[in-house]
Amino acid sequence: MKPAPFAYHRPGSREEVDQLLAQLGSEAKILAGGQSLIPILNMRLAAFGHLVDLNHLAGEPAEPAVAGDELVVGPLVRQAAALESALVAERAPVVSQALRHVAHPAIRSRGTVVGSVLHGDPAAELPAAVALLAGSVRARSRRGTRPIPAARLWTGALENTLAEDEWVDELRLPVRQPDDGFAFEEFARRSGDYAICGVAARVRAADGELKAAVAYLGMGGLGQVHALQPMAAEEIDGPGLRSALTEAVAELDPGDDLHASARYRRWLALELGLSCVRRAAERALK
Amino acid sequence: MTTKLFGERVERREDRRLLTGIGRFTDDLGHDAAQAAFVRSDFAHARIRDIDVSGALDVEGVLGVYTHDDLQGGFAERLPLLIPHRDLKAPRTQYALARDELCYAGEVIAMVVASDRYIAEDAAQAIRVEYEELPVVVDLEQAVGAGPLTHSDAADNIGAHVSEMKGDVEIALASAPHVFKWRFRPERSASMPMEGRAVFARYDAGQDTLEVYDSTQAPTGIRAGLAELFELDWDRVHVIAPDVGGGFGVKVMQFYPEEVLVPWASRQLGMPVKWTEDRREHFIGSNQERGQIHEVRVGVDAEGRILALDVRFLHDTGAYCPYGLIVPIITAAQLPGPYRLSNYRYSFWSVFTNTVPVSPYRGAGRPQAVFVMERVIEHVARELGLDSLDVRRRNFIQPDEFPYDVGVSWQDGGPTVYDSGDYPSGFQLLLDSIGLDRARQQQAEARAEGRLVGLGVGCYVEGTGIGPYEGATISILPDGTVSAATGLSTQGQGHETIFAQIVADELGVPLERVSVTTGDTRRIGFGVGTFASRSAVVAGHAMLRAARSLRDQTARLASTTLEVAVEDLVFEAGAVHVRGVPEKSVPLARLTLVSNPLRYAYGRDARLAAELAQRAYAKADRPLPEGSRPGLSALEYYSPAAGVFGYGMHAALVEVDRRTCNLRILRYVIVHDCGRIINPLIVDGQVLGGLAQGIGGAFYERIHYSPEGQIQNASFMDFLIPYATEIPPVELHHLETPSPRNELGVKGVGEAGTIPVPAVIANGLSDALGVAIDHVPLSPEEIFQLLHPEPK
Amino acid sequence: MSVRVRSELQRVTLTVNGAAHELEVEPRWLLSDVLRHQLGLTGTHVGCEHGVCGCCTVLADGRPARSCLMFALQAEGLEIQTVEGLASADGTLHPLQEAFRRHHGLQCGFCTPGFLIAALPFYRTAEGMSDQELREALAGQLCRCTGYAGILQAVRAASRIEGERSQA
To answer: Which of A120, B391, B413, B671 is the S-S candidate for B304 at Cβ 3.0 to 4.6 Å?
Structure first.
């Protein structure tokens, strides 16, 4: 389990990265935290002629920051830093909640937030949280920059819509509104494993009604957010929420795998969804 | 003798080096050695049409590329059958490098040796194999039915059929008030030590010697086998098992292909060669265990007394059976466990499938046996409306029935005769410890709240300490330290400590003055290996004997030196003293010098020793009198007449989360009896470690094969070894019923903790869910299916 | 397949346990391999090479990291700490090491360096953790021998041993 040979590039600036990707095209792969990429390379499930290591980019922030009403996460912000960030806990609590379920300390201390989002594993926590928040990434290349909203970031498992010469230098997440409540729940076989099923929920209290939205992980898709019909606070504890979530779950298309059947996953999605939305509602109403 | 170390909770002698990072595992050696990588079959069953190695030869840094065509003599023949059996009519073992037919995905096809492992993998990847795919059989029932052949030239997939009977099962069943029939299915699993296998070989052409470091549980056998294969004197071949990062059975095979090929390549290339198995290779290239299908008929009376038990089972031996029939024989012999079965019959079929070969994994057939027996008890109780705890009590062998003959053969070929035990007391202690009444009440309250809580219990007997023998060599060195060695190797069991305890007690020296070496044929060439929970019993007694012989020898010398009778000598604090005359003594260090009538200047005691030597041998007619020898050392062997049988019982209070369908273990209690305990620290560690593996086997760890014979979860992402978060706190109690079969009264402990756990968890879940459970490991998915069956 | 050519060696300076080492490495060489086979620091073990077992865990700038999921080149500029750096120069065991010995926190010893390193950043707070918190803090490290019981006790006890020493 040793990687195939590659040429290693260590750009010092974002512009140098642009340059390298323009030059190398599909032969190149960005290396940031490497916690998903290097296992794949070690197993020789993939090989790239060139790795472009972002870790020595000068002046990249180590922690998320707030710009206007958005939380900005640079390409080298580690999952551990985001998890420990009071700013994230306050402005994007669902990201903190999700990060607690991301692997283990030794993985989080290297793995980056942006990297996990782009890697696009349907069973990973961060893509679901980003989708729920309707975050976006800024793709850049020598040709310029463009925002890609979460809804259009992934085309399928482990596939994103970046062009060959593009990479991401920023993840932007809208910060919470005063009446937002968030919750995140997941079920995995062992602590830190990829989810069998997980749910990220936001409940926004407005005009005497609760507007809930949920995003799932481990349920096949990526980037989908299910907005539930607005409901009165009482309905959250009644059959209203169950039927709304049942509809949302019906839209999902989870597969069978070694650890769980689609039927079991749908059950989990509904059960976890109920408690997750309720918890988010409680927080919204506080 | 002063304070006994036997029985004391002493800290381990081996820990310092392991804690400071200076332990020596095989891959820690030979940084400059060439490195091997292997091409392994992509298919579970195929014929090799062609192997094109040209791509590999072009890779810079490649030193050698080998296929079966390159092998000659014994190397080109099939690997040995380690344990033949008269009923094993159609044994199969593999070639070191496959010749034509490939019978499991992972079978070794070609070897590459290169300057480093990275390049070796580059080259292995460049080798092209053209396959002709053959039909694959994975499922056991298909394999004995109309399924394809595992080996295309075989008549069928059955390697052996073995049956034995105690009493008369048919007659007993015919007259039994109740007869029931059930089926059980334990699934495939694997030992999965944290360190994979590794072999580092140095052949020296000038001296014609071969030295092999091997992460093995049985270096003595590897040495003997390599000597034969290489046609070298035993003295020219040495095998050393240095620090070994866990074994649990998978590292005792004699021989894996790599254990033959790496030394062979070292001789071919005239340079040191090393191979360190990676995790991917371990999944497809190292042995597995556990897959069986049982059909049970049981006859009982109205109180649940078992009148007859008839068990027929299929044992999955994988593509080859290098370990003979040991696993199914153990299953068959240990299935009755602590229960008195007057009429018992087993029939098993050892069945080939196109999967990784099977050999023992910690527990070795017993977890399956206990799962079957304990599920039978629960079923019987349920059918008859009885308390399953009462059913157990009614069937226990009683303390006055020992020695107790199970009535079928044991793995060593002799009868299965239990030596000692007290099952009813152990069971009572278990129930007291878990607080049965409170647990039942807790369960009732939880149920009233709609929670799914269940109590699971499981009992087992574990045969341990089998022969044929082990040896020990012990010397007193001129600095007064004691150096002991035994042939079997160590994978974490603390042998360096427990053997030192035994030796230190006999020789009256402090523990820290005794060093123990294991698994090094340079120190002792005869020995068997660490498996079957045998080391403490067999090597422990070899140590005892050698220490005693050394003591006698030392005493004789001291008696002439001190001019007192042997009977008046006391061994204490590293010296021999005259009883009642404290000032009259001689240190062991000096005695080693005294024993050697050779002048050499070094050594603090040299001058004194020279004087004493003259006195010791004053009346002799020659420098070294007849019957004496220079130095103080002894070599002794111990061969037990029969095995010794430990036992234990576990209880668990479990809960199923209705939302997630996951298992939560609320409480776990163990009662365990392995006879007299040499070191409680180590025994606790063995039992608790075994338990964690048992929990893995009950709920997390299963090797999943596709119908095409591919392992679908060949990584730690998907083969779910529990982390600390998945293991509950455990309450552990010991009983110490000494074995009457050996002097120390000890029994083995290595496998005990693992054995009953799948049964206990399955019983707990069955109780919580109110449904029958017929296989292990279980999973949240299966609990979901049990709770919410698919609408028909 | 085309012939793979050995990729070029690159110079790198690695700081391990406070000492700087100048080395030439291939870009693809994993930090775990370079620590073990270039620097001879074989206390860092390799158990899975896909980041799950934790045997190869080292500290990188004080944080635990899988050395099998880092190229050696990437460790340039980071302070790497391995198990060899734990005990004092005079051989005195680190309180964590001492605690592992007292509480039988190791059997075969293969996973042990990873556990010691993983516990190093937080052991001083372990005594106050709940059983579940402590188990979660150590999840990500696999042990196949001990069933974790001795490890949990040891990590909990280490700060006490440290306290005893500072009083002595």
So the answer is: B391
Q: Which of B659, B702, B782 best tests the A interface by mutation, with the highest count of A CBs <10 A?
A: B659
Go through the domains of chain B in sequence order and give each one's CATH number: 33-134+197-244+251-285 (3.90.1170.50), 362-464+643-787 (3.30.365.10), 467-638 (3.30.365.10)
Cβ proximity of C111 and B689 under 8 Å: no
Q: Do A6 and C7 touch (CB under 8 A)?
A: yes
Residue B346 corresponds to which amino acid? Y
Helices (H) and strands (E) in chain B, counts: 20, 29
Measured between CB atoms, which of B280, B661, B781 is closest to A43?
B280
Judge whether A84 is closer than 8 Å to chain C, CB to CB: no
Rounded to whole angstroms, how far apart are CA atoms B675 and B170?
37
Q: What Cα–Cα distance (Å) separates residue B687 from each residue in B15, B51, B648, B755?
A: 19, 48, 10, 10
Q: What is the fold, at CATH topology level, of the domain defined by C10-85?
A: Ubiquitin-like (UB roll) (3.10.20)
Q: End-to-end alpha-carbon separation of chain A, Å?
A: 51
Structure tokens at A248: 């949302």
Number of domains in chain A: 3
Question: Is residue C149 within a helix (H) or strand (E), and if so which, with residue range?
Answer: helix C149-167
Q: What's the rounded Cα separation, in Å, for the pair B323 and B329? A: 11
User: Closest partner residue to B279 among C36, C49, C112, by Cβ?
Assistant: C49
Report chain A's mean pLDDT, rounded to a whole number. 96
Integer-rounded Cα Rg, in Å, for chain A is 19
Q: State pLDDT tens for residues B554-589.
A: 999 999 889 999 999 999 999 999 999 988 999 999
Shortest CB distance from A39 goes to which of C50, C63, C118?
C50
Inter-chain contacts counted by CB atoms under 8 A, chains B and C: 200
Three-state secondary structure call for residue B483: strand
Indicate yes or no: CB of C93 within 8 angstroms of CB of B19.
yes
Q: How far apart are CA A76 and CA A98, in angstroms?
A: 18
CATH of domain C95-167: 1.10.150.120
Place of tokens 């040995």: B80
Phi-psi label, residue B601: left if phi above 0, alpha if psi -120 to 50, beta otherwise: alpha
> What radius of gyration do chain C's Cα atoms show?
17
| Chains with 3 or more CB pairs under 8 A to chain B | A, C
Q: Shortest CB distance from B118 goes to which of A2, A191, A268? A: A2
Regions of chain B short of the pLDDT cut 50? 1-2
The answer to whether the CB of B659 falls within 8 A of the CB of B728 is: no
Q: Do C4 and A5 touch (CB under 8 A)?
A: yes
From chain B, the residues in CB contact with C93 under 8 A are: 16, 19-20
Instruction: Read off the DSSP letter of residue A141.
Output: E
- Residue A2 forms part of a structural domain: no
Using the beta-carbon criterion (under 8 Å), do C41 and B21 form an inter-chain contact? yes
Could B723 and C150 be called an inter-chain contact, meaning their C-beta atoms sit closer than 8 Å? Answer: no
Task: Check whether the bond before A75 is cis (ω within 30° of 0).
Answer: no
Could you give the C-alpha distances from C89 to C17, C24, C93, in angstroms and in order? 12, 28, 9
- Of the candidates A89, A83, A276, A282, the one whose C-alpha atom is nearest the C-alpha of residue A187 is A276
Q: Give the list of residues 6+ apart from residue B707 with CB closer than 8 angstroms, or none.
A: B136, B138, B139
Claim: this prediction has a pTM higher than 0.90: yes
Domain with CATH 3.10.20.30 in chain C: 10-85
**Interchain proximity A8–C73, CB inside 8 Å:** yes
pLDDT digits (tens, 9 = 90+) for C61-88: 999 999 999 999 999 999 999 999 999 9
Concatenated DSSP letters for B226-264?
A: HHHHHT--GGGEEEE--B----TTTT--S--HHHHHHHH
- Chains in contact with C via at least 3 Cβ–Cβ pairs below 8 Å: A, B
